[in-house]
């Protein structure tokens, strides 16, 4: 079966001015990543802020155009298609953002916020849009009584429900959710995550879920990709990643995730040093400056992202026999 989304060797860099003389440098935000998302699946991208997750979300939905590599949506290469060609696809891929405060216009009534994508993408009448907006509010656990009110009258969790209703209004196949619960209290987070899961089942949605927090994505994900400095370092199905993480960076991230039974808690791995700048990433393995298992070869050779068991990919020399021979 053709994946809903397929990303191959995707790259995006931005020009940045550095220092007093303002020399232009390239910030390699996304530096050659590949993954696929099957229909109905939740694929999560996880990593520290600045690792390229959000840029990836914007490349997948073609809000950004890649410098290199390809994005395929429903078997069509959309990497460089025009805005005109993109327009009918926009409806089919919607985004939910972290901060509903910032992404919702405070001067618009809730019914108009929810129905705005319908106004853009359909020819429905105002009356039809209002009716759908009320239904959508019920679908996301709010009430049609809320339709005439303004976004600022709602709590953070309610606003995120409004954002989700809005994304859902045009019945997309794909929703890219960029840190959708990061601004919310933990108790509210699980309510919103449960809602997203219910909606996925009801509408057959596919999610690209972006988060800096591995504990947030545990319950919602089918598969997870871990990113570091613009690269994918490990991809696996959820259970494999939590039970048998291979990449030292994944192991470090997981060691700080709270577990319900403290006797099962593994020792916390504290990474040395700061996150290097994506403008000047380290040579060889870009994680080598912080890796507890760093070897001599790691400073010179960039590890290849490869499958080490079915469905489990990792970019680390520890799992590459040929490279280990070089080290010995
Ligand atoms: Fe660590 Fe080397 Fe593996 Fe990079 S390649 S993660 S530095 S062991
Ligand atoms: Mg981000």
Radius of gyration: 21 Å
Order of helices and strands: EEEHEEHEHHHHEHEHEEHHEEH
**Biggest sheet record:** 8 strands, mixed
Tell me the name of the CATH homologous superfamily.
P-loop containing nucleotide triphosphate hydrolases
Family: Belongs to the ABC transporter superfamily.
Protein name: Peptide/nickel transport system ATP-binding protein/oligopeptide transport system ATP-binding protein
InterPro entries: AAA+_ATPase (IPR003593), ABC_transp_ATP-bind (IPR050319), ABC_transporter-like_ATP-bd (IPR003439), ABC_transporter-like_CS (IPR017871), Oligopep_ABC_C (IPR013563), P-loop_NTPase (IPR027417)
GO biological process, one term: peptide transport
Description:
This is Peptide/nickel transport system ATP-binding protein/oligopeptide transport system ATP-binding protein. Belongs to the ABC transporter superfamily. GO terms for molecular function: ATP binding; ATP hydrolysis activity. This protein is of the alpha/beta class and 328 residues long. It has one domain: Rossmann fold. Helices cover 31% and strands 23% of the residues. The chain contains 11 helices and 12 strands. The strands form 2 sheets. Strands 6-7-8-3-9-10-12-11 form an 8-stranded mixed sheet, sandwiched between helices. The protein has a 4-stranded antiparallel sheet with strand order 2-1-4-5. Helix 4 packs across helix 5 and helix 4 packs parallel to helix 6. The longest helix has 18 residues. The chain is globular, with a radius of gyration of 21 Å. It binds iron/sulfur cluster and magnesium ion (MG). The site of iron/sulfur cluster has 14 residues, from loops.
């Amino acid at each position: 079966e053709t994946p809903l989304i397929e990303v191959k060797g995707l790259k995006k860099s931005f020009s940045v001015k550095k220092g007093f003389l303002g020399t232009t440098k390239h910030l390699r935000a996304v530096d050659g990543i590949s993954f696929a998302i099957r229909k109905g699946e939740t694929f999560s991208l996880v990593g520290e802020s600045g690792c390229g997750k959000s840029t990836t979300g914007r490349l997948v939905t073609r809000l950004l155009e890649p410098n290199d590599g390809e994005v395929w949506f429903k078997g069509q290469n959309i990497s460089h298609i025009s805005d005109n060609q993109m327009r009918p696809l926009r409806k089919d891929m919607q985004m939910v953002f972290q901060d509903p405060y910032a992404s919702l216009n405070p001067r618009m009534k809730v019914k108009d916020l929810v129905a705005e994508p319908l106004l853009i993408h359909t020819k429905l009448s105002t009356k039809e849009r209002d009716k759908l907006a009320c239904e959508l509010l019920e679908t996301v656990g709010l009430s049609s009584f809320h339709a005439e009110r303004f976004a600022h009258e709602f709590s953070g969790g309610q606003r995120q429900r409004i954002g989700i209703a809005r994304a859902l209004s045009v019945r997309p196949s794909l929703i890219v959710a960029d840190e959708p619960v990061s601004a919310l209290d933990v108790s509210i987070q699980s309510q919103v995550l449960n809602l997203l899961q219910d909606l996925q089942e009801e509408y057959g949605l596919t999610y690209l879920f972006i988060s800096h927090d591995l504990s947030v994505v545990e319950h919602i994900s089918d598969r997870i990709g871990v990113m570091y400095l613009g690269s994918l370092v490990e991809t696996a199905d959820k259970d494999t990643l939590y039970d048998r993480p291979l990449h030292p960076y994944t192991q470090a991230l997981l060691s700080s995730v709270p577990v319900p039974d403290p006797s099962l808690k593994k020792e916390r791995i504290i990474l040395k040093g700061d996150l290097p700048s994506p403008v000047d990433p380290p040579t060889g393995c870009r994680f080598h400056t912080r890796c507890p298992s760093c070897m001599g070869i790691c400073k010179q050779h960039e590890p290849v992202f490869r499958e080490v068991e079915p469905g489990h990919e990792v970019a680390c020399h520890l799992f590459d026999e040929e490279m280990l021979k070089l080290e010995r």
